[in-house]
Amino acid sequence: MIKSVVLLCALGICGKVFGLQTTTYELLMPDVYPHRDELYLCTPIRIFPDRSYSIVGFEPNASMHTAHHMLLYGCSEPGSNDSVWSCGEMSSNEIDAQYNTASPCRSGSQIVYAWARDAPSLTLPEGVGFLIGKNSPIKYLVLQVHYMSKFPKGKTDNSGVFLKYTQEQMPRQAGVFLLGTSGAIPPKKVEHMETACTMTEDKVIHPFAFRTHTHSLGKVVTGYVVRKNEQGDEWTLIGEKDPQLPQMFYPIQDPSPISKGDIVAAKCVMNNTHEHTVRIGATNKDEMCNFYLMYWVERDTPLQQKYCFSAGPPFYYWSRAPQNFNRIPVQDNAKYT
Q: Known catalytic residue: 35?
């Protein structure tokens, strides 16, 4: 049964962020038992519909030795009415012996927060918050935890995240835009997994943080804003990071606003040292290529478009993209072998 949560100071731990009165809510797995390897579990809360709140900070309660990664989804409807369910993001049709199976969200899916590799807490900039509840399409929060390994009998887990929130209205709403790819990495090869999307909405977004995510083959993940002009494409670095470092949200390189017509692009450099092909997939034996862009909008709503995915190699590269890119930044494969 889904918990309905009225987020009030009396029900949590009160504090202050940038002078705001804030409360902490513990969104944790309810002592779950990961009964098999490579298990994704979800647990939801329903935001009380008569009030609006803004999340202004995230404090992880997890260890990379227990949880491979965590995602916090905002949903209009959750994927299940159960208190916990199996929610493998790329294997929603699987049959699980212990838990019902469903996606994290039935409708209105968007990512609010992500964590991996012992990343530290995140506090949003002053005046910025993720709007949830009454005046937001986010009516539920769903925590997803990826457990790589089966737990010993009798051992349970309560990994999750402490949410810092306020009832004060924020002048700037936060959003997350996720770039990623499908595709495959041939054996004994350094491969570039690339994606790009043109901004089509009449909005101005202000990027302030980025996060990278791959599994073990990732060497570097890079994000750009591309602006076309008469002289050729102008590639501006958003951020670049080794995904084997703590996968936290890092400050971006250039905070210039991104507008309609601009292109957001991302690349993962992967070094497959195995004798077999590695494909994008849900397990730790597979790979992922993700670049998360966190941004705010001034007295506006976040982008309707939440995701930008390409088919990846061997079908998609920037050199074949419909945007007809030129001046594509070149990376030296030799230093990643």
A: no
194 and 156 assigned to the same domain:
no
Helix, coil or strand: residue 109 = coil
**Which pairing describes strands 105-107 and 52-61: parallel, antiparallel, or unpaired?**
unpaired
Q: Does residue 247 have an active-site annotation?
A: no
Q: Is the dihedral of CA 200, 202, 203, 207 positive or negative?
A: positive
Name the domain boundary from 134, 153, 170.
170
Q: For the segment 20-35, what is each residue's pLDDT rounded down to a tens digit?
A: 789 999 999 999 999 9
Query: What distance in Å separates the CA atoms of residue 55 and residue 123, rounded to the nearest whole number?
Result: 9
Residue 207, both tokens? 């990027």
Q: Which pLDDT tens digit goes with each residue over 256-272?
A: 999 999 999 999 999 99
Contact 29, 66 (CB under 8 A): no
**Residues 213, 181: Cα–Cα separation, whole Å:** 12
Same domain assignment for residues 232 and 151: no
Are residues 225 and 245 part of one domain? yes
The tally of domains found in the chain comes to 2
CA distance 228 to 266: 17
Predicted TM-score (pTM) of this structure? 0.91
Does the annotation count 144 as an active-site position?
Answer: yes
Active-site annotation holder among 70, 193, 215, 248: 215
Known catalytic membership, residue 276 = no
Do 179 and 225 belong together in one domain? yes
313 prior amide bond cis, ω within 30: no
For 140, the domain range is: 3-170
Q: Which of 193, 213, 248, 270 is catalytic?
A: 213
